[in-house]
Amino acid sequence: MKKSLIIKVFYLFLAFNYSLINAKDSSPPPVTWEKNVKQLLYDDDVIIRDGSGLMELVTPYRALDAAIVPVTVNFTENQTDKDFVKYLTLVVDENPSPIVGKFKFSPKIGNASFTTRIRIDKYTYVRAIAEKNNGEKFMISNFVKAAGGCSAPSLADMDSVMARLGKMKMKFIETSKSSNSLNKAKFLISHPNFSGLQFNQLTRSEIPAHFINYIKIEQDGKLIFEATPDISLSEDPSFTFNYINSGGPLIVSVKDSDGQTFSDSFSYSRITASKD
Q1: Does some domain include residue 199?
Q2: How far apart are CA 165 and CA 272, in angstroms?
């Protein structure tokens, strides 16, 4: 009797795990993309190829926090002057504003692999669409379980959020003293990135949309990347990116939807000198 009970429990355990695997593999059909979102970006005759050979999209299957969902796009090929990824568009099908942003790259980025953080309003497909310099388009998508991120309140009170508005940080992750080496950095700017769907927790009044809508990072007069994001970027947006080092400081220019501008310059040599 005891042995048969153990066997039953064992088979129930197997069945439960099998159902979890099947649930993860059985994503719903991409109805919103096919009927609505695709037309926001492209004409009906545009051919979008399978991007799984060109890039990998890394997202959580179930996000821990729908207001801060990490998204990474890893590219298998490095940029060259003749063959490079010119644009990367991030899309969240079910968000009120589904186009997270369009990112423009140059060969100077070296490898277009990129990480940022987004908001997700409801269970949805997240898409990365890469366009190469010859016009070819490639797409890859993941289904992500998250909800409520677009209307989630800020993590801090309004006064402290606005007090640090526009403050920037640059973390140099991988560096080399030799010129023309592939380096990696992470840029972060303090900004509430209000979506227009949030409420003040004290007054219960609606908070108007106020978000970053332009970013440019360059070095020695050459563009690394340029972005035109929308409300789906998370609070305090961050971007991890590569660049071919030419020695000069990284120059950052940012604008937001209220017309405010922010800029700064970040030199790795200045940081290392301060440590000596």
Answers
A1: yes
A2: 27
